[in-house]
Amino acid sequence: MEIHVVDGVGHGPTELAARDAALADAGVGDFNLVTVSSVVPADATVRVAGTAPDLGPPGDRLTVVRAHASASPGDAHETDRVTAGLAWATGPGPGLFYEADGADRDAVRDTVLEGLAAGRDLRDWTFDAEGTRLATAGTDEGAHTAAVVVAAYGESESIA
After folding, report:
1. Which residue ranges form the domains of the chain, and what is each CATH number?
2. What is the pLDDT of residues 62-91, one digit of tens each?
3. How far apart, in Å, are the Cα atoms of 74 and each of 15, 84, 139, 153?
């Protein structure tokens, strides 16, 4: 199975509209996203892609790990951006994802890396590769803002 790590940013008149725009920007906005905890199956390969490839028809179920950051128009007075981040560690067996969000890009990167290190320490697994993906969106006094990083597990599946 391939896990595609994608990211997007968006703005909209509501928080949900901004999140929908960010998911569309990442190429996963037309799926019913099912969020899972952060374990990478042993047979999976993690690949970074700015936008998701064709993962199936609209309306299907897509399994994901997701980081999401948002800001309201009022938040734009306090911060000029929001960042969502996802880090992962993989090896010959299972792996891990760790997600975080915030206003400070460097702090989000540090948080996902610290969380990933803690997760590795809890497990007796072998890890030989790591990656990090961040999405940052500038806030807007006239709209809600969202940034997402999504790890999409394989292809979508029919809900029916």
Report:
1. 2-157 (3.50.20.10)
2. 999 999 999 999 999 999 999 999 999 999
3. 12, 19, 9, 35
